[in-house]
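pasting input
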Amino acid sequence: MEGEGRGYLLRVLDTVVIGGGPAGLAAAIKSCEYGLSTLLIEVNDRLGGIPLQCIHPGFGIHYFKEDLTGTEFIERLIRRFMDLGINYLLRAYVRDIVIKSHDLKVVKVISPKGTYELLTRTVIYAAGARERHIHEIGVVGDRPAGIYTAGEVQAMMDIYGLLPGREAVIIGSGDVGLIVARRLALEGVKVVAVIELMPWPGGLTRNVIQCLRDFNIPLLLSHVVTKVHGRKRVEGVTVARVGNDLRPIEGSEEFIRCDTVIIAAGLVPNTDLLERIGVLIDPRTRGPVVNELLETTIPGIFVAGNALVINDLVDNVVEQGELAALGARVFIENDGIPTTEWVRVKCGSNVRLVVPQLVSGERDVKLYLRVLKPLTNARVRIGGVGVVSYVPKAMPAEMTVINLRRGSLPKELKELVVEVVSE
Amino acid sequence: MLVSKYVVVIIGAGIVGASIARVLSMYENLSVYVIEREADVGWGVSKANTAILHPGHEEDPSKHPLRARLCVEGNRLWRSWVKELDIPSKFPGELMLFFSEDEGRRARDYLRLAKLNGVPEVRIIDSPEEVKLLEPNVSKDVLGCVWAATAGQINPIQAVIALIENSVDNGVKLLTETAVRDIKVEDGVIKGVVTNRGFLRANIVINAAGLHADEVSRLVGINEFTIRPRRGVYYVFDPNAEPKVRRILHPVPTPISKGVYVVTTTEGNLMIGPSAKDLPMDHKERTETTYEELNYVWREASRLVSKLPPKSLIIRTFAGLRPEPSTGDFIIKAYSNPWGFINVAGMRSPGLTAAPAIAYYVRDLLRDELGLRLRRKSTWIRFRVGIKRVRDMSWSEVRDAVTKNTLYGWIVCRDEVVSAAEVIEAVRRILRIGARVTLDGIKFRTWSMMGRCQGNFCRLRIIKLVSDYLGIEPTEVSKSGLGSEYVIGDIKKLWRERGGGTY
Amino acid sequence: MSSVRRIKVTCIICPIGCEITVTIKDGEVISVEGAKCLRGRKYAITEVREPKRVVISVIKCVGGDPPTVSVKTSGPVPKDRIWDVMRLLARTEVKAPVEVGDVIIKDVLGLGVDIVATRSCRKS
């Protein structure tokens, strides 16, 4: 119950879950199923997170064996959460986490109902990601009204029922950008162009077809927006072609008229709180370094979902949430994760990032990785182990998931170099 | 001429206009108006500068006597003003770094100026080790510096807001979205100001119109100066980005500019800039950033410190225009023809620092040049308190704030820890001074939307909160006034307009 | 003289995105090449004969929090009818409360599919 039965204030909880999106809900559900005393903290005024604004299908194909919209998917997850009667706080913000000892953390929460200092053995951090904005991607020029990020536009349209503008240019052709392009087109907005830095689309072919081709929206590959123009409101953008070095080619600049600029240039894990308490961050994922139970470098603090690494499938996000809950359980039952020897997982040829970064070989592990460049007929190879998986079409837009059986790692291996190569 | 109450119209609600308003509000026989063409205050030069309170040792009194004198005085006055008005500020001191013998020689000359201007606590440090003690992040190539202990920093937009709030509390009337079209003069005497919203009768017109001060001055036939925009661009970094700097760092100035600064702002962000690009006269709205200028700032700033944070931790780039007067020095003058017209123009650096001193100087002009008998109010409100921020509160202070007002417990901006109570309070204060409620106005008062996400996570929530509170549609909330609406309408607006698809 | 057409279709059913070639003679499909599975074959044939898409949007939810309900067509509709569906949705409103799965419009425009709610909307 929300806020009722405030017994959680008087005793030490087993786990506090930060974030009520799919990762946090899944973690809390699993944690409760394990019999751990659980409290979930959500900063918004309702549970659900980003899927609440994802009205398109593609969710739950693995988890529920159905092709659901994000909204339908999260509704089911919320229903399960509510049925279990797990305690939660809404409009609650975690101001700080204080590490008192190996198995005691104080989570300081601010909410309209008051401030709380929650005592807990473990924390599962599932606060999601944030979107990269215009200054981060190096676009210069004016700073008028009419510049948004894709997720912002998605919430604006599909939760609040509002329209950003009439003529839009979208920066970035990842799936989020493509899906927003379709929504805009369906509501009568002219999507003038989608601008993509790389020579290939950022998102899945299926989305390029259904979102751009279906609506005759031009996709400008190997292009960048260099400047935004407009005093009070966006009046247009300057785009330029880029060379192999991904830098603008002088003389190739063109002006595109529009009143709306939407940045779909990717997500970054939302790790501010973790950084402040000293968790080690992986510069490749921009999320925390974790072991195979998704525990960070601070014992008893676990991470799951987009706060750990940017995911594409909500099914993987849910899986990570459940794994983090398992990690919390193992931590509590053994007074700490009982593994003593960890092997570093490293990015080899054509691997941009991989999670977890530390494995032991004592448990079954799922490796989540992303390739640098698309590759067909790809093999995932681990140095010292061999080929562990065949991927017909490996793409940066789609996370590759590898299952490693417990005991499959040779004892003497000091590090795991993962690469994705062709035959 | 015996007048019971003089009507004073100040043109421009920037740092100078607002400071003048505060000082003039002390007098009971002055009826003071501030007219501002934007929807809110401080949106010209005042919101986009390096925000330094200069000590005054960089001003040559033989070349720019007003700048020199008013800078030193202003630096001193700000120390009490920031306390009285609850303005974020700090006084970490400044290092003018030099990297060669030649630069060192030029730097030493500033000691002479310090003496001439009566600037305390300025000395040369010519051992790199001692410089490093003052600033651990200084470049290893540094030879020495001129250390000036009285240098400070301020939050300039919040300073303008505080000054205007205090002025309004003391009876000053602010008219926003009010632009000057003409100034009426009859028989060589000021009669009033013609604006886009009608005629405003006035005995005294004080021209503090920043970049457009020369155009306003021309309206009364005074053409003795022109104002040219000089653009400077800046980078602002994420609050967690390291390494930061402890002090204000900058190189030895050139005749054109004081150089690129590296500072940690009052809000705790590392900031570098400005560049100095002179623009044509008709470029007074050209606040766009360019790659060329940004690259210049990056290069110059890199010289001063051991390292800058990675570019991935940049959260904002922006540009500000400085109003460079053709005369070089400030133009602060009362004229006998037309009688009642006062120019306060050319407020380039150290305009921000000098503002309180300029205000008193203008008061003196009214009294001594124009012969006004000024009577002090017995009930002048000296103090103004800013919006209480959850971010700055201790844990028990937060608990108490939430108990009194649950909206303090609802954090709407995650990155900067801004509560709904602060947003509502910002809305109230905007309305109280007579400005239009805008996202930028809320942003500057609460520092929401200024963090890592730059608003893309909290803007919608804030708009919903504000439109619910005011009982208006979300479509009526704009970024910075008319023409900058955040949304164009509800999601079916275009379908209703066109009734058909476009493909 | 028979007319033989070869049409290339990129399958959207799964991430592989097979490039499928459908050969049509006298209006009849005579071969489908390049599909790795049955669903892909079926999709390619439909896409060539009569391309269809599921339509997703939101409609106003009067008295609701949030003030919209997300909707979808319960099955795909012909591509050239998408705009008719959208035009109708622009005029469609519901009253809170709404539950996931509620049928908003039965057999929309006689196309054999319903408009169903995909998000619940409680009274504000």
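fyi The domain at 94-149+229-321 of chain B is CATH 3.30.9.10 (D-Amino Acid Oxidase; Chain A, domain 2).
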